[in-house]
């Protein structure tokens, strides 16, 4: 089997947010083969990501055997090394890598979860992310909830944030998990202080309190916070996760499979984390690309609800009574009607 074409588009979703999550949003990558099989993956980077796919990555992969996924990943990384390593180039590469995995599953008539040594139709508990405590009353049943404080997260707003977290715990009761997302807007002092104040509320983790680049700051938090620290959503490749893992700067690692380098890199991150005794909880794990890995590789599975505006993805499994499962359809089991997709301008 040989690759005959690689295409990339950015479909428009309903109510896609008016910020970088749309302008540099998710792209659909399609890889065609001479066997008549097309693999689909989703990466990121908007128009810039599409350009990387249609030029550098397409030129590299045309005529190649798509089954050599690990080797092709290394060559794509090397080909983008001068301008890549992180950010948009790796987001684009992620979509290609996922399309290669989808192709392999379709060729072998197996779901990706089975390629990874797992079994489909295993129920995985879910958690739902909300942007205010009021949103908690409008969500369905889940194993846990994450309160996103990105809109109100300046260090001087400490008391307001603590009050919101306490209110969230009171609304959901004692049993469900509760997490807090600071979205890179706190500092060392406020994180330590807030962690002490919210410890009685049984918080599973504080997510991304500092910049992903502030490894020294995370080293301080590792020793001084009262609540576990999570992060990695905005990090790229297993190599960048290495210091986080080797120094155990995060208790919970949260790679996004559509951004971090695809499934090939997510598998490597899982392997490294397991050896270090750390937990992996992929960003937006209910989306099917990460859900196959969670089902096959995770000893403590938990899946975050997905991006609601990606309505152009068909075949995603539904959440029922707080649980989700992958099907036994080949590849990732998704459906795309390329001829009727509305594109982002």
From TrEMBL:
Needed co-factor(s): Mg(2+)
Enzyme class: lyase
Domain Mandelate racemase/muconate lactonizing enzyme C-terminal: from-to ranges: 133-228
SUPFAM superfamilies: Enolase C-terminal domain-like (SSF51604), Enolase N-terminal domain-like (SSF54826)
GO MF annotation, one: L-rhamnonate dehydratase activity
Record flagged with keyword Hydrolase: no
Pfam families on file: MR_MLE_C, MR_MLE_N
EC number(s) reported in the record: 4.2.1.90
Family matches, as Gene3D superfamilies: Enolase-like C-terminal domain, Enolase-like, N-terminal domain
UniProt-listed InterPro entries: Enolase-like_C_sf, Enolase-like_N, Enolase_C-like, Mandel_Rmase/mucon_lact_enz_CS, Mandelate_racemase_C, Mandelate_racemase_N_dom, RHMD-like
Keywords tagged on the record: Lyase, Magnesium, Metal-binding
Coiled-coil residues: none
Protein name as annotated: L-rhamnonate dehydratase
Organism of this sequence: Gimesia maris
High-level lineage: Bacteria, Pseudomonadati, Planctomycetota, Planctomycetia, Planctomycetales
Chain's gene name: rhmD_2
């Amino acid at each position: 089997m040989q690759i005959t074409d690689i295409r990339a588009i950015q479909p428009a979703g309903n109510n896609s947010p008016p910020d970088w999550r749309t302008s540099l949003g998710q792209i659909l990558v399609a890889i065609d083969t001479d066997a008549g099989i097309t693999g689909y993956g989703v990466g990121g980077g908007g128009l810039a990501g599409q350009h990387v796919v249609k030029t550098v990555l397409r030129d590299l992969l045309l005529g190649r055997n798509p089954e050599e996924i690990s080797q092709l990943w290394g060559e794509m990384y090397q080909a983008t090394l001068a301008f890549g390593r992180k950010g948009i180039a790796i987001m684009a590469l992620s979509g290609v890598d996922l399309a290669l995995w989808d192709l392999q599953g379709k060729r072998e008539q197996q779901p990706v979860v089975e390629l990874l040594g797992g079994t489909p139709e295993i129920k995985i508990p879910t958690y739902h992310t909300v942007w205010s405590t009021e949103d908690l009353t409008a969500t369905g049943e889940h194993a846990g909830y994450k309160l996103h404080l990105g809109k109100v997260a300046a260090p001087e707003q400490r008391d307001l944030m603590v009050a919101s977290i306490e209110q969230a715990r009171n609304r959901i009761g004692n049993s469900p998990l509760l997490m807090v997302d600071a979205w890179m807007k706190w500092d060392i002092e406020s994180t330590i202080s807030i962690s002490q104040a919210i410890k009685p509320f049984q918080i599973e983790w504080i997510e991304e309190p500092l910049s992903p680049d502030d490894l020294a700051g995370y080293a301080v938090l590792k020793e001084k916070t009262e609540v576990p620290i999570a992060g990695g959503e905005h990090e790229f490749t297993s190599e960048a996760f290495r210091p986080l893992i080797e120094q155990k700067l995060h208790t919970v690692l949260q790679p996004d499979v559509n951004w971090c380098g695809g499934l090939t890199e997510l598998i490597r991150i899982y392997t490294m984390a397991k050896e270090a005794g750390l937990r992996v909880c992929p960003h937006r794990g209910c989306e099917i690309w990460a859900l196959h890995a969670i089902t096959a590789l995770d000893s403590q599975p938990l899946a975050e609800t997905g991006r609601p505006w990606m309505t152009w993805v068909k075949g995603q499994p539904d959440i029922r009574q707080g649980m989700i499962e992958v099907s036994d359809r080949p590849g990732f089991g998704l459906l795309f009607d390329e001829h009727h997709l509305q594109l982002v301008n």
